[in-house]
């Protein structure tokens, strides 16, 4: 029975991956053998595990968090680097909950790497015993979320490989849009790959000599630059070798990465980091997908890693090695959905706090989709910031109508047929005194498949709501993302099936409206730093289907 269950689950996961693959390849049917389409599901899982099956290696999308820390001054350091990284990863837990890992080292030439990785949440992977083994003066960490059958321990990051010059560790957030081409390039040079992860592909690519050769040992900046020219997006990387950590952001700046400075507890210094800055009063430097965890570890946000920038972190400080230009001088393409959904609200991107942008989205939504109502509320906590902005702009008071059950999570208790038929929203309860007899505007950040908003509306109806108007603080999702975000296939996205009026009828709302693409872009750029910069740009591919780079499978 257990074996059957495992086979069934693997088949189910593969079906999802195959659907994503078919969506990607619908315009390239001339490249495929009809045999692939005649394969039964009984054999598909085996086929998918074959690393040589090229077109089945592009379904590994994941949204992850990376973190790095290096102590300054004399080594061994008084800073517990592993503990700093662990706390940093806890702050990034929203970016991935399937696996986590940390690699540390003392920073000695060809020194030993201490590694601990595992499946599950940060607090479950790391304990006192494992933390004691993670010794060193620098280290990197990773928390991972993946789709489909890739949720296996072999894919846990950071990846560690032993090169001719010493051990190398890499943590990656994103997904390569030309994964198959890069895989062919690596395999053609005699390198073996043990997983289907493009993160391992990046690691192995870095182990190969750059085209101009190397005169005196490994030239890691040159290797990184060569990788960036081979793979223009999408990635943010933290790379550890010897006594250095390199931070890398793809030329389009699609995935976020920022730098923080660990200050002495008594320090009140307010100076900012500049290019080539030294350690000064810093006790260490950190680099992270988001800035939200910096305060909890005694670090101050300094700046973002620029699109295409390679930064080098040593005990002396942080410096820019080089900046790789985008192909054909195209504008940057920072993922706009980081603002809408993925990032924690206290993170800073492009000189502005995510919470402020979400409030601005709510203001724009009120201008575009105003409706008469008695109360503005939100689906907690995803739509709360936008709901406050909507309320401020519309003049309609904000009030809570839903109480969230914070202890539901992934339950093993399956609801009975009766409860399923009632459509109970098990994550929420209704605050009936705020709801009864009122016209409610309910704000949420997005609708993907459309299977969760209906039960919430029913809950409000049962609590006595007179009207329920749904407002979504982002445009309709219509296209999959191939750059590191787990968005379903086009066929699964409800916006491709139902117009807003039909969707409103389907979920039981009195009306349903989205924020426009122009409204979202305007909200994001309202208070952006350097708004006059002609190169400012945001990726809206999941909304418009316009991808920053041609997809290569």
Automatic annotation (TrEMBL):
* Record's cofactor remark: Binds 1 Mg(2+) ion per subunit. Binds 1 [4Fe-4S] cluster per subunit.
Annotated positions binding [4Fe-4S] cluster: 335, 481, 539, 542
What are the recorded GO MF terms, alphabetically? 4 iron, 4 sulfur cluster binding; amidophosphoribosyltransferase activity; metal ion binding
- What are the EC numbers? 2.4.2.14
From which residue to which does any coiled coil extend?
none
GO BP field: purine nucleobase biosynthetic process; purine nucleotide biosynthetic process
Q: Does the keyword ATP-binding apply?
A: no
Q: Which UniProt keywords apply?
A: 4Fe-4S, Glutamine amidotransferase, Glycosyltransferase, Iron, Iron-sulfur, Magnesium, Metal-binding, Purine biosynthesis, Transferase
Cofactors needed by this protein, per the record, are:
Mg(2+); [4Fe-4S] cluster
Amino-acid positions noted as binding Mg(2+) in the UniProt annotation, renumbered to this chain: 382, 444-445
Which biological pathway? Answer: Purine metabolism; IMP biosynthesis via de novo pathway; N(1)-(5-phospho-D-ribosyl)glycinamide from 5-phospho-alpha-D-ribose 1-diphosphate: step 1/2
Q: Which reaction does it catalyse?
A: 5-phospho-beta-D-ribosylamine + L-glutamate + diphosphate = 5-phospho-alpha-D-ribose 1-diphosphate + L-glutamine + H2O
Transmembrane stretches, start-end: none
User: Where in this chain does the record put each Glutamine amidotransferase type-2 domain?
Assistant: 64-316
Q: What is the active site of this protein?
A: 64
Q: Which family does it belong to?
A: In the C-terminal section; belongs to the purine/pyrimidine phosphoribosyltransferase family.
Q: Which HAMAP family does the protein's record reference?
A: PurF
**By what name is this protein known?**
Amidophosphoribosyltransferase
What is the organism of origin for this protein? Cloeon dipterum
